[in-house]
């Protein structure tokens, strides 16, 4: 019986850790998306030929606004897609977790 309890505890901990990691990553990507939105909003009111800088793989690269805005737009859209996929995965995992708890009659005991 003790091995079975240990197995359930390990599975429970795995589910909780997975859910927490997904939530943390969604929050992190949301902050990145917000930063992209702020930069894009700022650059929309600036003339296209103005110099700007952006980080590419840890190096600061000089470009102009005209070439930077499409790159930032694409990155922001990719962040949106990634966040949506991760939210769907989070919901799916949470549903699996709830089903697993119900199927195995798991009751959480608070200390």
From TrEMBL:
<protein>
    <submittedName>
        <fullName>Prefoldin subunit 2</fullName>
    </submittedName>
</protein>
<dbReference type="InterPro" id="IPR002777">
    <property type="entry name" value="PFD_beta-like"/>
</dbReference>
<comment type="similarity">
    <text>Belongs to the prefoldin subunit beta family.</text>
</comment>
<keyword id="KW-0143">Chaperone</keyword>
<dbReference type="InterPro" id="IPR009053">
    <property type="entry name" value="Prefoldin"/>
</dbReference>
<dbReference type="InterPro" id="IPR027235">
    <property type="entry name" value="PFD2"/>
</dbReference>
<keyword id="KW-0175">Coiled coil</keyword>
<dbReference type="Pfam" id="PF01920">
    <property type="entry name" value="Prefoldin_2"/>
</dbReference>
<feature type="coiled-coil region">
    <location>
        <begin position="5"/>
        <end position="32"/>
    </location>
</feature>
């Amino acid at each position: 019986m003790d091995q079975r309890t240990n197995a359930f505890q390990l599975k429970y901990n795995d589910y909780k850790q997975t859910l927490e990691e997904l939530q943390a990553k969604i929050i992190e990507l949301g902050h990145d998306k917000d930063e992209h939105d702020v930069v894009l909003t700022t650059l929309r009111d600036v003339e296209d030929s103005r110099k700007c800088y952006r980080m590419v793989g840890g190096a600061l690269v000089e470009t102009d606004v005209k070439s930077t805005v499409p790159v930032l737009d694409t990155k922001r859209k990719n962040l949106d897609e990634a966040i949506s996929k991760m939210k769907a995965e989070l919901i799916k995992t949470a549903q699996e977790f709830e089903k697993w708890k119900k199927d195995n009659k798991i009751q959480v005991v608070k200390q």
